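Regression report. Comparing outputs from two consecutive submissions.

Submission 1:
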Amino acid sequence: MNYKSNYLIHEKSPYLLQHAYNPVNWYPWSEEAFIKAREEDIPIFLSIGYSTCHWCHVMEKESFEDIQVAKLLNETFVCIKVDREERPDIDKIYMNFCQMLTGSGGWPLTILMAYDKKPFYAATYIPKQNKYGRIGLLELIPQVKDLWLNKRNELIQTSENIVNHFLNLNISLSGKTLDKSVIDFTFERLVESFDLANGGFGKAPKFPTMHHLYFLLRFYKKTKNEFALRMVEKTIKSMRSGGIWDHIGFGFHRYSTDEKWIMPHFEKMLYDQALISIGCIEAFQVTGNKLYVNIAEEVFTYVLRDMTSNEGGFYSAEDADSEGVEGKFYFWTRDEIRKIFPKKESDMLIDIFNISYVSIKDDSILYINKPLEDIASKYNLTLKNLNEFMQSARKKLFYKREKRIHPFKDDKVLTDWNGLMISSFTLGARVLNKSKYEKAAINAANFIINKMITKDGYLLHRYRNDEAAISANLDDYAFFIMGLIELYETTFDTFYLKTALNLNKTLIKNFWDNKNGGFYFTQINKELDNFRQKDIYDGAIPSGNSISLLNLIKLARITADTDLEEKAMLIIKAFSQTIEKSPEAYTQFITSFDFFISPSYEIVIVGDFDAIETKRILRAINSRFIPNKIVILKSSDNMKTKITDIAGYLKDFKMINNRPTIYVCSNNACKAPTNDINTMLTLLL
């Protein structure tokens, strides 16, 4: 049935536009909606989700497209829809309320609140009718209406109590600095939660929490603890073999619903592709195992093929559902395989990918649960021949699958997630010496700089259909600055470094907590100032404070700006009391902290970027895993901004013997300059 459009029809968000023809009279988050609620003296029904969320689709189909539910909602509330990816500032506030009130969270997120934005009820998915032990909307809405009309004071008091408790929880007092023993403690905690049999941490559902692996790789380098490396390799290999990996079109799904990584939740998020590929490249640097290069390059293939706009920005996500069924696009049956391949080949593929052994009805997700060496031996093949067969079969299945109805693609460009992907592509360009990855990073960075920075230097969060909008949050600044620093260390174009420094100044000016240190998630903002909060938890993605700590350290070491170093110390102090209790929840922060306190290196190369010897020096550095370092090139190249304009101390660094020269500094002391790569490596490794 077609309904008249609601107020979402003029929005840019794909998620909001999906609800534009619901019979619910949705408003976007806007002053108009809150004025209406105040003038009509009715509460707010706030629903937060995102375009690739399976249960968001379920709730829409079941309730928001239902005339009976819509009538009740429209009579009782002003209804507001929010895209959590477009407005993470709103989502974080109300998700924290939900977790505080219910002990859990997720999407869709449902908040009932007064028109002063203070909540009195929180839930996630709510069915139409009572089921799953949950109250249904048909019963809940009349109860709320009655309470609002007849027991308003109780609701308002509940709301005030919730907000006061929330604000007290959100206070972070500056404490002492972290002790370096927290690094060993973090490792011990990760060992306790590690799944020896399947890799990963904890039980189902299992997420690819990559900052755990970043920490473990650095812990291995520092201590040579073999188990730290074993945890990393087991996790990556298990993910790559499981159904969480798209064996046909590449890319990782959001998470595994089981502990063996077999049955995924099928949405694909840009940030997962970025974070996992970074981990794989670092694992390759540590081990030399080209399997990890293959995984990273296949992720890059997927992103460049399916998730890159013509303008250079990276899209946000692909849906879990197609044709109304979660995962349908990715499933295969034995009959389908046998129609495409001769019997011998189809039997092999059915065996290799376990088709029909883990099924939804007759459909199977592809996964591998045997070593490829064992499979090759079973079929009297060399490992090389088996891989060639699998690649050939994969291409046939890919072209066949392309004819299916694809999952919905959320084509908005988000600054924060693009920053992560820029970092990944630049790391790939440096380590793998691939110019196409550098080009992808440059295109994305230039897109954001040209389209998503205002004339007065402020960053914006979202771009879609020729419109950049929504004030950037901490993650936008932190992740994009990180990408720009990485891009500088790949291209040595000072434009990117200068842009990073300017954005960092804007970040400090507008987000810094002058009283207790650390960055707020939102800038000074009258709309949500009462609920302004600081986030430190490293969850699906690292926190903005964890990455900002790393950025401050790197920018301080590049520019010799001690004020930035002091800001880094204040961030550590701001969150030390929280982190000491459960450091395994803050592994990206611990990784950044390790950079701050452990031996780190400032490597200055004086020489022309295009000189063969300079290239050799850079390849030698990039092929090794040296995470706690910054690399600066002082070149005679004609740039608008010379590196000495940014880092004046470099003016006295000169070439020796008329050859590219390396200066290695560590622990506030510089070694004698050298032209010799092996001498340099001795100082670094």
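Submission 2:
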Amino acid sequence: MNKRIRSHGGAPRSPRKPHSLRAGPSSLQFTRGFRWLPVLCLASCFGIVVAAEQEGLIQTKFRVKFVTSDSVYLEAGREAGLTEGQRLTIRRESPDESGTVARGTAEVRIVSVASSSAAAEIITSDLDIRAGDTAYLSAEDTAKLNLLQADREARKYPQVVTFTEGDPLDEEVREHIPRPPLPEVNRIRGRLGFEYNSIQDHGSGMDSSQLGFVLRADMTRLGGSYWNLSGYYRGRLTSRTTVASQLTLNDLINRTYQLSLTYSNPSSRWVAGFGRLYLPWAASLSTIDGGYLGRRIGKGTTAGVFGGSAPDPTSWSYDPNRQMAGGFVNFEGGHFESIRYTTTVGMAATRVNWRPDRQFGFVENGLFYKQYLAIYHNLEADLLRHDIPLNNGNASQSSGLVLSRDYLTVRVQPHRVISFDISENYFRDIPTFDSRLVSTGLLDRYLFQGLSGGCRLEMPYRISLYTSLGRSNRRGDRQSSWNQMYGITFGRIWRTGIRADARYSKFDSSFGSGTYHSLLLSREIGENFRIELQAGEQTLASPLTSENSAWWVTTNFDWFLGLHYFLGGGYTIYRGAIQRYDQWFLNLGYRF
């Protein structure tokens, strides 16, 4: 096909006759000037290559600008190449003179991207993430971004021309250059292993053993769809025991896992999720074994239903035989770069062993301004029925709303090194979480009832101090009491590479009063080995349990054997008034 090409250099010139080959003065001058032509060409080519390399640089590390309880906000967004579904590793610069970077101990996944900022949910974390930390893009995502960048560079031409019909070079690129899929399509990561553990009960002198498996998965855009599988699971396949089965401390912690299959399509109004998960718009309901189905209505509004059981032993209304179902409406808006808000309103009903338990409404609100201000509030009100006696001896029924749960926290961070928070916590009924988890720190949000305030200070040498003080004043108390919590974190102890976190708490709550001490030590050796030790001691005076005092020590390790295999293990010693046992486990599996 003939195409007419018109140059941008102006009107076409008439062809010139060739110069004579006879050397004259002018030709000598031309010959001398021509000697510099190769040098000029090399310099031009060098400048073009340098410019192309600078344009093709891919940003692989991003600064953390704000942190909430379960989310991280980055100082980069779509313009820096970030997309939803990407996973990053949080690392912190080492303070030694070598300038090396310590291995990351927290992993996050991007869930929302704006032009210059991004929000990510925390997948795993053994690090107290704070503003100023560095998030690194995975090697796989970096390679895919380089491939996309190379494709864009290949489409640049040294001279601009205009075609009266379609651009043949552009058409040829479309037809013959394969388009790489998006980085999140069919991205499958995780590990699967088999586990053996044994328990020796010192109270009865008997022992037991179990065979199970562990699964950690991060799978996005499965089969090119918009279904994603992520989370962690540890369960039993077979069990051999010579005594009555009882939950150990490790079993209780393992039951706090989350593993969910979710659907989120930007081009669809429907959203869904199944498995053990949080309702994304109402995290205060804790985890459920079930699912949700929602539909986007207009801009910033989502309505849906949910249902399932309540298996999490850290839930304030925990009962392994409780079922729950309800509906919700969520409103959200704003931007991560400025003010953002979210509000969820819903109603739910619960049953215990399929017998009526509660009918309640719930409200959850959040208001955020950059990294400086975060306000969160959730409330639950029960619908109760009362029998009112009449003069004729009969009774009539009436119903009303009664506040059963209220929590408010305000967090202010005027500078990255210091933050303040004020909280108000109220329960009408006694919480029913498993009290054996008090000294693990998983129940701290329930220990302080009433009004309390706290502060966190980031000091030099990667040392952090934090505290919380409050005055408990429950209904029925003769006098109020003080709640206290103090803690210190060492990001790195001297030059050992050991990270430590120690805390002490004294509390007086509706479920009981007591104290606890805890210590966490972790160390990473190279890129493939990690070991952790955690110890705790608690005293508890509570009508909910006869386990008044207990202490425990647990240690575990992870060892990556090459690129695809891993070995893990651990040992726990638990000594309490009722439970006295030793437990060890060993798992071996495959990473993919």
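Expected: both submissions complete independently.
Actual: both completed, but the second showed a warning that disappeared on reload.
Relevant detail on submission 2: Confidence is low (pLDDT under 50) at residues 1-34, 44-56, 95-103.
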